[in-house]
Amino acid sequence: ASYASKSLNVSAQGGNPNGLFFKPDGTKMYHTGYASDEVHEYDLSTAWDVSTGSFLQSFSVSSEETTPLDVFFKPDGTKMYVGGLSGDDMNEYTLSTAWDISTASFVQSGAAKIPANQPRGSYFSEDGTIMFRGNDTTIYRYNIGVQ
Fold this sequence. Notes:
Elements: E1 17-22, E2 28-33, E3 38-44, E4 53-60, E5 68-73, E6 79-84, E7 89-95, E8 104-111, E9 121-124, E10 130-134, E11 139-143
Antiparallel strand pairs: 1-2, 2-3, 3-4, 5-6, 6-7, 7-8, 9-10, 10-11
């Protein structure tokens, strides 16, 4: 791999970006803000080119998670999952308009404790029945029924 000389400064949204997720077609980017307790949404005018990104909006998750570390979406964009350090769980949100975080509403928190160390990242299987979360040394698999 080589650096493509393309970047997007996200410091105006609080900096300290953590979790990063792209819409499957590459036209939207999302990241959690460790310092801002929010998920941030960007439009990319050229798919997969972060240098063409423009900030669209933020969605606060502070009621469920004060230290968000990652964000993941169902492939159709109608569900968003935010994991973090303070709650050490996974929070589920429904989006009434796919890929538009301003339409998100909290559904539930699910246990996804990481033994011994802080969670670092998460990934869901396409059908939503398996979640992986990792820490500094180990990847953990969780069997769930997220739809």
